[in-house]
Hints:
Strand 6 and strand 7 (142-150) form a beta hairpin. The chain is 34% helix and 30% strand. A seven-stranded mixed β-sheet has the order 1-2-3-4-5-7-6, with helices on both faces. By secondary structure, the chain is an alpha+beta fold. The protein is globular, with a radius of gyration of 19 Å. The termini are far apart. Bound molecules: coenzyme A. Coenzyme A (COA) is lined by residues 21, 25-26, 81-83, 88-94, 114, 116-117, 119-120, 122-123, 126.
Amino acid sequence: MEIRPARTQDTRSIVELHADTVRRVNSRDYSPSQIDGWLGDPERRLARTEAMIREGRYYVAEEDGRVVGFGHFHDSEITSLYVDAELHGRGIGSALLARLEEEAVRAGAFELEAKSTLTALGFYLASGYEQIERLRVGSVGLDVVRMRKRLAPERQQIPKRSNPDATV
Ligand SMILES: CC(C)(COP(=O)(O)OP(=O)(O)OC[C@H]1O[C@@H](n2cnc3c(N)ncnc32)[C@H](O)[C@@H]1OP(=O)(O)O)[C@@H](O)C(=O)NCCC(=O)NCCS
């Protein structure tokens, strides 16, 4: 299994994996109407996913040439993290999360937040994230939990030296 940056050719696999995982796994915690609203229009999701891949910060887990998971972050927030429903519990989610954390630190973040589904709460807790608050998000009112993990010490403010030549 390899974690690599997503390419636009991965778009359809990502969108299909997302829909399949939400329908098969997250449906434990959300109603059919919430799931339908969450998935929305597939064509719009394809377009949005492709645009996000072009912007970067999008990673996939690939096994035998097949996308088996994906994750994305923006600034200091994980916006998605999904693993093929058949392959849960094999460390793929942890490997993706470790890559997102590493890339976020490289991009200057010192902490990461996620709005965890109720389904993934145990995963984020096992990965060192703390619960901040429970929220209801989106037009379909999905219950999620805001989670946070510190990744690196906050950058030290370097004290400004007074400039003796300054007039103000
Ligand atoms: C959450 C998800 C990405 C985790 O991926 P995964 O490949 O199954 O996770 P891993 O195998 O790397 O598990 C890592 C650890 O988390 C624990 N864990 C994983 N899912 C868990 C869950 N639902 N509840 C409790 N613990 C869980 C594992 O036991 C493992 O602990 P260990 O290291 O002590 O053995 C995957 O289950 C998923 O796609 N869920 C549905 C989609 C979803 O809700 N995504 C989150 C969107 S915010």
